Amino acid sequence: MIILFHPRATKPRNSRLPLAVLALAAVLEGKVDYEIVDGNAEDNATQRILDLISTHNVELLGVSAMPGPQMVAAMETSREIRRLRPEVPICWGGYFPSIYPDAALNARYVDYVVRGQGEDTLLELLDALRGNRELDTIKGLLYKDMFGLRRDNGERPMKGPDEFPWSPFHRLPVEKYLRPSFFGKRTAVHHASIGCPFNCSFCGVHAAYGNKEKFESPERTVAILTHLVKNYGADSVQFYDMNFFLREDKARELCDGMAHLNLRWWCEARVDIMSRYSDETWASIKRAGCAMIFFGAESGSDWVLEEMQKGITTAQTLEIARRTRQFGIIPEFSFVIGNPNDPDRDTHETLRFIRKIKRINPDSEIIIQHYTPTPQPHQAGDGMYGNIEVPFPDTPAGWATEEWMNFTLRIDTNAPWLKRKTKLLIDNFETVVASRWPTVQDIRAPRWSRIFLQVLSAWRYTLHLYRFPFELHLANQFIALRRPKRESL
Fold this sequence. Notes:
single chain, alpha/beta, pyruvate-formate lyase- activating enzyme, 2 domains, six-stranded parallel beta sheet, cobalamin binding, S-adenosyl-L-methionine, iron, 4 iron, 4 sulfur cluster binding
């Protein structure tokens, strides 16, 4: 038996379908006996794994880990399994080991690391564990040899979603994962692509999954959504793709194909690409049920966007603000503030730019994060930006400390280039804006709480007074509105 472990990543009320392990399960289905253990659904996932090991011949424990809380849960369970059942091989895959492979492999409880797309690598690793092939022939695999030396077999070329079978939804109680959200009463999730063709300097996606994006065919996407609607009653969906719309013709084809499903949905998209879409395509997207689109606006300064290698302009972001208002779609703009080369200038220009966006489209949702570097391809574990070097932790335990957890979640990065005064300005501005325009995504917040925060913060926003917003901190603690960037906490 193979155990596919999805460590706990969020509160149970926020849990969604564990797409990462479902993708692996798809290639095992009908070939290998396996069990999915989802930490978001199990009261004690570690004990569940131990019970399976006690009653089955477990060939491999496969662990999927994102940076942050899920990595901590992966670390704790893996360490306990290694202590109690040291004969079971443990393999880590997913975003964390893909961008920090050395840190993952340095853990004594990790035997193998899969970098990037894992479906074929997993199947080949199973062949090797059964003595049918050599470990050094498996692309995408890192491991420690018999002498304890690190071995890296190189990157595996990515395949598109259409080259793999559907997720075996029947192996999970899907109904329990279709939870209420702003978009509907039964919200599903789906991933229709892998990879990213862009090279933003602060992002690790292209380092983990390559610089090409391979898409699922519109026909398959519609078929899977239809399956979720008809068999499980899904009425909404969140697409987890980094860039849901890359080609206008494919966007039209997909939206026209899914319009009859009457789904409300959310996705991520590029500012530059969608700013060039025709009104007809925007109308098609709206008819298909699109309610909100996440855009990485990143900065209000064109010089910063150029240094980030973002490939967009501030004028294009403003155009998106206008177009989304025109078609009744809520834009969710994310900003990464505190560029190391000139954080003070970047901060002030970006805060002014956010105010301009709000004038154009008051419904715009604003997400503000501190700049945090990630390893770029072919770097040896350190994050580099200009003359700034960040020595990342070299073990999962190092990443699990409060300092690096805050860094990972962009809550309190303690960036050496960011003055305390500038950091406070960013944080206080975020508090004022989030109070002046409370997110519509918190479906639990009563109407009076939004009105109270709006009234309490209006004078500060109008007068540009962001310092010492004690009353807003107190009000937010009392009301506890959802913060999109901290949803996983």
